[in-house]
Amino acid sequence: MQRRRFLGLTAAGAATAALAPALTACGSEASGATTLKLVAADYGDKPGNSSKKYWDALAREFHEKNSKIKVDVEVYSWNEVDKKVAEMVAAGKAPDLAQIGAYADFAAAGKLYSAEQLLTVPTQADLIASIAKAGEVNRVQYGLPFVASTRLLFCNKTLFAQAGIAKPPESWDELKAAATKLQNVKGVKMPFGLPLGPEEAPAETMLWMLGGGGGYTDHNGAYTIESKENVQTFDWLREELVGKGLTGSGDPARTNRQDVFDAFCRGEVGMLHGHPTLMQQATAKGVKYMTAPLPGAKGKAKSTMGVADWMMAFKQNGNREQIGLFLDFVYSTKNVLDFTGQYDLLPVTSSASAQMLGDAKHKDLRQFLEQLENATFYPADKTSWAKVSKDLKEKIGSVVKKGGDPASVLSEIKRDADSREIAAR
Length: 425
Description:
By secondary structure, this protein is of the alpha/beta class. It contains 18 helices and twelve strands. The strands form three sheets. Strands 1, 2, 3, 6, 11 and 12 form a six-stranded mixed β-sheet that branches. Helix 11 packs parallel to helix 12 and helix 17 packs antiparallel against helix 18. The longest helix has 19 residues. The protein is globular. 52% of the residues are buried.
């Protein structure tokens, strides 16, 4: 997944207070035909495998079966798609459909149709319940999960052998020891790739928080961004990994996930956190790798991060029936498998997941599917999450620099998050 990064992972920076009044059905045409506008994220890493090809082919096939409905698709990179949709909504020109990183702020502003208003009962029932629940605001589902991913530790087998490392690390001490050995291997520019740049900083942040026994929220859903465990995690990263040169000479705050993925595929990175798409990219470049559960502060992390990217439908143009027909088509088992198979992502429907588990050609994805059951997701149901995600992208990289102050930065992000939650009630 580009990015988002899974998937990517990333959330919209929408400012709901600036949303303009809705316009009347601009997607409807005098002839009785309707053109739906869909804005989607690009999961490809080069023009040849852009998601635009998938959506254009899907739109053509749908139009052949529904002659009075056309679907006009715009695809943007994960670096800009959330912002683009937010700007369109703020200008009173919301698309009919958006496939992006966050939905809650739009839902809270009353801009979205609910899943129940759109999907047939069989389609809605086919969505994996644990992931679909993450799309709820006040117990009403507005966010439709589109694809999912989990994260594992990826290790370059060739570099590990050259460094004399027998197996993937299970604890942070083992990770540090392995990175120290990799530091002395010729050609290794990043013993551990640490992307805390704007592309997907919230994901990398969450992975380390989970490894340290923390996270963004507690079991009741309250923000715990500034917890003792989270502060200790970033103190350790600053002193024991970044401070000792084990993430390379670059600035993690300016390092994006795709930059690290590309470097891994060039054989320049020893270890990194990765999602299923990296398998495809590494294999294409001839890189031999192995995967393992996330290392934690004292041993294997109890949970990994699960990421769901979201589909949402805006009310503005009044095309509920046409949107529903298209979404039922999008979520058919065949189409779900076509997309997830192309990008090595995890399906969000039970029917597609069952087929993937039983298909030998997807055996490499089973380890990611196994992690999905206990995965921890972003608090995407919070209307404040979009802004929290933006704050993390802008600020979290500073805490691992020399002299960085995790306690101060995390407390500031937490205060702002709580203030937005209170204001939204």
